[in-house]
């Protein structure tokens, strides 16, 4: 392996992927995300960055996922995955943005050389990168740009094909731990499906088979996962996939999927004739890393069971298992949420275990959850997982149970470590986890829903000229800029019974988000639209274009 950059080859390839001069890119909450048509240069440069990151980490395999998740079909994006299957280390996000914004090929070469110098990258080390993409039409073209970036640094590529985001994260960890005592699983898609289905079957053995579960695949890559896992479940859970039209133009995430369910708080119209009273269903998002559950109650009303409800269900189950295994004094279970968590869920959980609140974005939740022996993290939008620390896994393996009940609980906990994708939120793994808990609790959707009653809430998007003018602190619960706006929001909130509201710039869309909750639905709506009106006016929005619902 040469210890020099092949500047001539990088330059030649870079000229094939010029940066549009009028655009600036930012590595945000989930990597780069924007219209698929303007991402060519970004993908090329991400290929270079991923290769350099691998060299920096002594040839460990880095992951690259080409997806825009819940965004509309015309968007696309890319994010990097670090060797343990986690999001890219935060200090490298800035390097990603610097490389993506170098105006010319010579600026790019200079940026690469600077990165090699300041990050002390040994260029003689190998570079290995595994990449995958979701079902978006722009995916193949963008993967070709990525491959040029990998070739420019002579990285060893591995094509994972069309996969869900969580599978790509799984593969990264499985590849990097292969042959070690921490081996995460076989480094193949089959390995992933076998691991999840094997653990699921052990956990539900002897339990009654639940009614068939409708799975809304958002017309995305999750559809393939459902067809691959179904035969492996041996009839212990029957899945009825819907919205599986992955090649129908415009269908992805359109009036379906987890984001649609959460933001509209409605059943996707395409499921209306499929879901019967008291039957459960769930929605994945476009890359299958988010999960929303729902059911139709006896009065034929749609009832949503979001990430907060999943957290309450799962955390309660794990706390009980830890207690039943006799490990209560050894293992500390904690939960991590964001400001979007419904106030009722936070109250319910805080009465039972420690709760932390962090800014939006998986990386924040993941890192906070790592501080517990067992950390449960879920965003209200359905993105989340459970982390078992390495110490916890050793405790589970070495603890000697003194009663049969302890032995059973210990076994369940060990199987959960296999069922749960601990690298990132995973709709498929989380769905199986929910079904396990419901089976053990003998809960229907109604009983699960009754754990606590959600406070009515409303989420509103405000399109502003510059969303970066909105800056927050205190886990996004307080605005520090524009100056004075937080005071006005506080004055409004005080007028609503049970009122709470916060404002933050989105990391994945060009909007500012407003969240509000109150004791009554009409009041939550009114508060949200009033705050949205304040935001719009403060941001200098055109009065003639002011959305009429903003108050
Ligand atoms: C991404 C992040 C999530 C975040 C969501 C929305 O999800 O991984 O942590 O909650 O974006 O973020 P924002 O409100 O900043 O737009 P995904 O599923 O789109 O990758």
UniProtKB/TrEMBL annotation:
Cofactor binding notes: Binds 1 Mg(2+) ion per subunit.
Domain (Phosphoacetylglucosamine mutase AMG1) ranges: 189-291, 306-443
Alphabetized InterPro entries for the sequence: A-D-PHexomutase_a/b/a-I (IPR005844), A-D-PHexomutase_a/b/a-I/II/III (IPR016055), A-D-PHexomutase_C (IPR005843), A-D-PHexomutase_C_sf (IPR036900), A-D-PHexomutase_CS (IPR016066), AMG1_II (IPR049023), AMG1_III (IPR049022), PAGM (IPR016657)
SUPFAM superfamilies: Phosphoglucomutase, C-terminal domain (SSF55957), Phosphoglucomutase, first 3 domains (SSF53738)
Annotated Alpha-D-phosphohexomutase alpha/beta/alpha domain residues: 61-91, 109-179
Active-site residues, as the UniProt record annotates them: 69 (phosphoserine intermediate)
Cofactor: Mg(2+)
Functional note: Catalyzes the conversion of GlcNAc-6-P into GlcNAc-1-P during the synthesis of uridine diphosphate/UDP-GlcNAc, which is a biosynthetic precursor of chitin and also supplies the amino sugars for N-linked oligosaccharides of glycoproteins.
Name of the protein: Phosphoacetylglucosamine mutase
Organism: Lactarius akahatsu
């Amino acid at each position: 392996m040469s210890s020099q950059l092949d500047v001539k080859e990088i330059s030649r390839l870079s000229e094939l992927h010029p940066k549009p001069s009028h655009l600036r890119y930012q590595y945000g909450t989930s990597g780069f995300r924007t219209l698929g048509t303007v991402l060519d240069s970004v993908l090329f440069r991400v290929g270079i960055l991923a290769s350099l990151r691998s060299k920096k980490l002594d040839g460990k395999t880095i992951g690259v996922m080409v997806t825009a998740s819940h965004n509309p079909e015309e968007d696309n994006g890319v994010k990097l995955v670090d060797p343990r299957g986690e999001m890219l280390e935060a200090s490298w996000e800035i390097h990603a943005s610097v490389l993506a914004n170098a105006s010319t090929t010579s600026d790019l070469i200079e940026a690469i050389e600077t990165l090699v110098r300041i990050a002390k990258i040994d260029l003689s080390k190998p570079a290995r990168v595994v990449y995958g993409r979701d079902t978006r039409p722009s995916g193949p073209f963008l993967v070709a740009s990525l491959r040029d970036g990998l070739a420019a640094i002579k990285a060893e590529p591995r094509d994972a094909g069309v996969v869900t985001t969580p599978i790509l994260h799984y593969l990264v960890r499985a590849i990097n731990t292969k042959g070690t005592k921490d081996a995460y699983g076989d480094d193949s898609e089959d390995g992933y499906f076998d691991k999840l289905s094997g653990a699921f079957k052990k956990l539900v053995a002897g339990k009654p088979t639940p009614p068939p579960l409708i799975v809304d695949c958002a017309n995305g890559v999750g559809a393939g996962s459902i067809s691959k896992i179904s035969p492996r479940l041996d009839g212990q859970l029957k899945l009825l996939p819907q919205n599986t039209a992955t090649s129908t133009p415009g269908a992805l995430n359109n009036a379906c999927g987890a984001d649609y369910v959460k933001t509209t708080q409605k059943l996707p119209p395409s499921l209306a004739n499929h879901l019967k009273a008291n039957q459960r269903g769930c929605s994945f998002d476009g890359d299958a890393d988010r999960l929303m559950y729902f059911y139709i109650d006896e009065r034929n009303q749609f009832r949503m069971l979001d990430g907060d409800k999943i957290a309450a269900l799962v955390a309660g189950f794990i706390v009980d298992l830890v207690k039943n295994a006799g490990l209560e004094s050894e293992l500390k279970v904690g939960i991590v949420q964001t400001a979007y968590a419904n106030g009722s869920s936070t109250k319910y959980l805080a009465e039972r275990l420690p709760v932390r609140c962090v800014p939006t974005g998986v990386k924040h939740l993941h890192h906070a959850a790592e501080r517990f022996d067992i950390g449960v993290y879920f965003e209200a939008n359905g993105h989340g997982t459970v982390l078992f620390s390495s110490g916890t896994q050793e405790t589970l393996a070495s603890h000697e149970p003194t009663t049969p009940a302890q032995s059973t609980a210990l076994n369940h906990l060990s199987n959960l470590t296999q069922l749960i994708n601990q690298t990132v939120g995973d709709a498929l793994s989380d769905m199986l986890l929910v079904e396990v808990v419901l089976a053990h609790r003998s809960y229907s959707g109604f009983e699960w829903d009754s754990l606590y009653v959600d406070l009515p809430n409303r989420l509103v998007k405000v399109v502003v000229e510059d969303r970066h003018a909105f800056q927050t602190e205190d886990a996004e619960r307080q605005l520090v800029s524009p100056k004075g706006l937080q005071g006005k929001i506080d004055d409004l909130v005080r007028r609503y019974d049970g009122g709470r509201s916060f404002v933050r710039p989105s990391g994945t869309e060009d909007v500012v988000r407003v969240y509000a909750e109150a004791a009554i639905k009409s009041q939550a709506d009114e508060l949200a639209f009033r705050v949205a009106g304040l935001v719009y006016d403060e941001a200098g929005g055109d009065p003639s274009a002011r959305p009429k619902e903003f108050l």
